[in-house]
Write a structure and sequence with these properties.
The chain contains eight helices and five strands; from the N terminus they run ααβααβαβαβαβα. It is an alpha/beta fold. The protein has a five-stranded parallel beta sheet with strand order 2-3-4-1-5, with helices on both faces. α6 links the parallel β3 and β4.
Length: 197
């Protein structure tokens, strides 16, 4: 089993356990082999879709997988569709300081202004090959926020940018976004305890 590289923290050397041992590469991700095969194959064969919708129970690795995909897409030295986790791009994504990856926790930032701030910066260039947006808990956004994201997905499809969604529950509000994600959806399975040890 591959060892996870500890994730640096800005809190005076204090890092929570889930961040310290979070997988940083597809090779380290456990219990979601079907998702890893699909995403790693898409990166390796340069057949990446413009948007992904990850859904599944809490704690199954949706957001972690989105971050790993962001690394693989922007890695300077990818190996078989997986990130090297050693280049400057991978390190900056791990630290959360990359200009290529924008993450929004929709559980607490679910208003129109939060989405407008992201869409306003969508047109700025970044050093990486892909600009990745991760919307965690996207089902908690307001209807107007969903509309803004949908327009961004539609416009970004032409510009080869990457949008990733992570959600825990299916809701009616998400339907508008799902319709424009063009059938690329990863459903995460519940994890068995023995997979984590």
């Amino acid at each position: 089993m591959a060892e996870s590289t500890p994730t640096p923290s800005s809190l005076d050397g204090v890092t929570s356990l889930y961040r310290r041992f979070r997988p940083n590469r597809f090779a380290e991700l456990r219990g979601q082999d079907h998702v890893v095969r699909a995403l790693q194959g898409a990166v390796k064969n340069d057949r990446v879709s413009h948007a992904y919708l990850f859904s599944g129970p809490r704690g199954t690795g949706k957001t972690t997988t989105a971050r790993i995909l962001a690394k693989a897409l922007n890695c300077e030295n990818p190996v078989d569709g997986d990130a090297c986790d050693k280049c400057a791009s991978c390190i900056s994504i791990t630290r959360g300081s990359s200009l290529d990856v924008t993450e929004l926790d929709a559980a607490s930032n679910n208003g129109v202004d939060d989405i407008r701030e992201i869409t306003a910066g969508a047109w700025h260039g970044t050093p990486g090959r892909w600009k990745v947006y991760i919307f965690d808990e996207v089902h908690q956004l307001t209807i107007v926020s969903h509309t803004l994201i949908s327009s961004l997905v539609h416009e970004e499809q032409e510009k080869q940018r990457q949008l990733e969604f992570s959600r825990r529950h299916s809701t009616v509000k998400i339907q508008l976004t799902v319709m424009r994600v063009t059938n690329v959806r990863a459903v995460f399975q519940s994890l068995e305890v023995h997979l984590l040890t």
